[in-house]
Design goal:
Bound molecules: zinc ion
Strand content: 25-35%
Radius of gyration: 18 Å
Mean pLDDT: 91
Largest sheet: 5 strands, mixed
Structural class: alpha+beta
Low-confidence stretches: none
């Protein structure tokens, strides 16, 4: 069995990962790839009641993984965890924003050093909703401007009516 934390590419949020939890009496229960199922399983795992495993279909064989760092799973599903920090961000409307679409294009720099990746975009969206009231689109991918020597600037799609 492999450890998920040792696979930097482990696609926690992928629908192709089959998660299950094992209870102390040996009972096994599948966890659907849905935050409503993952969140209670994460709570049980963080209390030490269950262990979470996953089957990851790979090119020729499927591999069994232990989800040894459950915070990575929580991040992928946008589940708040106790050690949540408050992001320090600066933002402005992007020059590509048209000023009227329901989702605005916003340039965001995370002064706190956080990065937005495919795996944590739902956590970042949940954080920004909690901390700033922003409603962020998570299905449009991630665009990032790299300027030599400058900070990483993400273009996030934020519902205009939630911007303040
Ligand atoms: Zn941060």
């Amino acid at each position: 069995m492999k450890r998920a934390s040792e696979n930097k590419e482990f696609p926690y949020a992928s629908k192709f990962v089959c998660y299950f939890e094992v209870f102390p009496d040996g009972t096994v229960a599948e966890i659907s790839n849905d935050v409503r199922a993952v969140e209670p399983a994460f709570q049980r795992a963080s209390e030490g009641t269950v262990k979470i495993y996953a089957v990851l279909p790979e090119r020729y064989v499927s591999s069994l993984y232990e989800i040894d760092d459950i915070n990575l799973l929580a991040d992928a599903y946008g589940i708040a965890r106790p050690d949540d920090h408050v992001h320090d961000i600066s933002w402005k409307l992007s020059s590509i924003d048209d000023g009227r679409s329901s989702y605005a294009s916003v340039e965001v720099v995370f002064l706190c050093g956080c990065k937005v990746t495919f795996d944590n975009i739902r956590k970042i969206a949940a954080d920004l909703q909690r901390q700033k009231g922003w409603i962020m689109a998570t299905s449009t991918g991630i665009s990032c401007n790299y300027k030599p020597g400058g900070p990483e600037e993400y273009i996030l799609r934020i519902r205009r009516s939630s911007l303040k």
